[in-house]
C-alpha cells in the first residue's frame, strides 16, 4: 500500500459501533458516530477556544506567526490523522485525542505547569493530563444533564493513557508515576468510571501521542529559527538533520534561509511519519492483534519510532532544550510568567472574593484543599492574556513578558 493511501478499517481499530459508551447514557445520533460526536464536542468546548491564547514556548503577543496551543493541536491532529488513515484506524477518535490532549494546560506553557504544581503541592499537585480529564468530565458546563463533555470511554481512556499505563494490574503506579503516585484527579475519577489504568491505550491514542512528539519537534524548530535562537546550519549537529539539510542543498542550492528552514521542517515531518508508519506496520505484523482489546493487552506500545530514529528524535529534543527552552531570553520570560501565577494563586487564597462567584459555589469555607483545587482549576483555564489582565487588576506592577 502506498504511504498516504487510506487503508481499509483494520480489525485492531476502535469500532465506534462497539464503543463502551458514556458515563451518562445518551441516545445515539442519527448522523454521527460516537467518536465523531466526541470530536465535535471538543471543538465546541470553551477550553478548546482558549488554546488560541495559550503559550507553546513564546507568549501569545510576541508574534502572530509563533505557535499557540491551538495551532499546535491542529498540527498534531493533521499528523495523527495521516498516520491513522495509513494504518486503518478510526480517524474521528484519533482526531478527538489529538485536539483534546492539551485542554488541561495552564497559561504560559510548562512554566505555568511548574508554578501550579508548586502552588498545589498540598492538594495533590498539578498534572496537565489529569487537568484535561477534569476539564472534559467536570469543568465544562455546557449541557443540561451532566458536567463536562460526557465523552466515550475510549476518548477518556486515550486522554489519560496515551503515553502508556499508569499502574500495574495490582494498582501500583508505574513509570513516571512511581515516585509521586497517580495524579489525584485521575485516581479519584477512576473510582467512578474505571479506565483500566494498567493497560495500554488504543492505537488511536498511541498515534495521537507520537503525533504530538512529531509536531513538537517540527514546529519548535520552525519557531526557534523564526525567533533567531539558532540557524539552519546549527542543526547539522544532529545527523538526521544534517542529512536532510544536505539533500535540500543538493536540490535547491540557492534557496533563501526562510524557505530553507520551511523545507527542512516539512522534510523532517515526512521522515518521522514514514519511520513511525514502517515501525507500526512491523510491530502489528509481528503481534497480529485482532481487536482493539488485543492492542490494550500488549506489554508495549505498537506505535513507536524505530530504535535508530528514536535516537535521532531524542537528539532533536536535546538540541531544542539546550538552544531554545533554556535560552536566556526564554528563561527570563518564563520565570516572570511563573511569578505571575504564584502571585495570582496567593492572592486568591487570601482574598477568595476576587474569584468569580461561580468558582466558589458549594465550597466549604474551611476546606482549604478544596479551595486550593478550585483556584487551581480557575488559573489553569486562563489564557496568557487573561492571566496578565488579572495580575494587572490585582497588583500594582506586572511584567511585560517580552
From TrEMBL:
Family matches, as SUPFAM superfamilies: HD-domain/PDEase-like (SSF109604)
Residues making up the signal peptide according to the UniProt record: none
Superkingdom, taxonomy of origin: Bacteria
Alphabetized InterPro entries for the sequence: dGTPase, dGTPase-like, dNTPase_2, HD/PDEase_dom, HD_domain, PHydrolase_assoc_dom
One Pfam family, short name: HD_assoc
SMART domains for this protein: HDc (SM00471)
CDD domains: HDc
Record-annotated HD domain positions: 69-217
Keywords: Hydrolase
Keyword Hydrolase listed: yes
Protein family membership: Belongs to the dGTPase family. Type 2 subfamily.
HAMAP family, per database record: dGTPase_type2 (MF_01212)
Family annotation (PANTHER family): DEOXYGUANOSINETRIPHOSPHATE TRIPHOSPHOHYDROLASE-LIKE PROTEIN, DEOXYNUCLEOSIDE TRIPHOSPHATE TRIPHOSPHOHYDROLASE
The protein, known as: Deoxyguanosinetriphosphate triphosphohydrolase-like protein
Native organism: Bradyrhizobium iriomotense
